[in-house]
């Protein structure tokens, strides 16, 4: 099969198309012929080796973290899927590789794709959908009537987060550039801060939750928008000690993460708010919930551009510019 791989960590020049054998199936695996794959900033971070200390991948490595496709074979213990099913998934963090013609995915990480979506749309959802679900529902326990600030509202995570927060009954503020202000309002944002004109930390107060996907400066400024008891959740770091426990890292890595997050945790504590880092995990069960929301019309995917599979490197480069409105996908079939 064709796949985009890296043999060493580095820049885009390290990515190349390779010919590889089809994946081997475990008893609880499902073999999926990939029709479309989502492209994310996470792909470039993995390619650059940013997670090599916590996710020690074996090289060569197939890149890609989400996909939609059709089941071709199932392992002997698989019960929920059969050949011909249209499915989508974010594979487990140690079994990535969706920039390929086939992938073996654990049954537990897979879900039937939304019936209302074509493959490219479905492939755009698993990574951001699970990230937002785990941030707003699992970590923040967002309730009806609460106020949430979602940074980068026009990005992949932001477009999904605005819609899910509104579905949950929250009041939503977001930040974006001038060209996207009206567009994110159409997604459901109640207040939109144009970061080119205004500073959100001088305008927003008494929020219950902030979801940050931007840099450390934005993270620290977000503290001023929270009321006492508020929750600051960051998907861009720094990782905290709880994250080290969640993924079973050795004690010394927990110590390193305690040091990395010390500054923001102390600042949060002084303001009477909590800080937590989220590295999303795969979950077919949560994807089923997302499927229901999409098919009911509560959430719609936002796809900026679709690239042919042969142009996967160009798709990754486009995502790295930070200009994508919503998600970017590559189409295999």
From TrEMBL:
The keyword Nucleus does not apply. Residues 10-330 form the Enoyl reductase (ER) domain. Pfam families: ADH_N (PF08240), ADH_zinc_N_2 (PF13602). Gene3D superfamilies: Medium-chain alcohol dehydrogenases, catalytic domain, NAD(P)-binding Rossmann-like Domain. PROSITE patterns: QOR_ZETA_CRYSTAL. The keyword Methyltransferase does not apply. PANTHER family: ALCOHOL DEHYDROGENASE RELATED (PTHR11695), RETICULON-4-INTERACTING PROTEIN 1, MITOCHONDRIAL (PTHR11695:SF294). This is Zinc-type alcohol dehydrogenase-like protein. It comes from Paraburkholderia ultramafica.
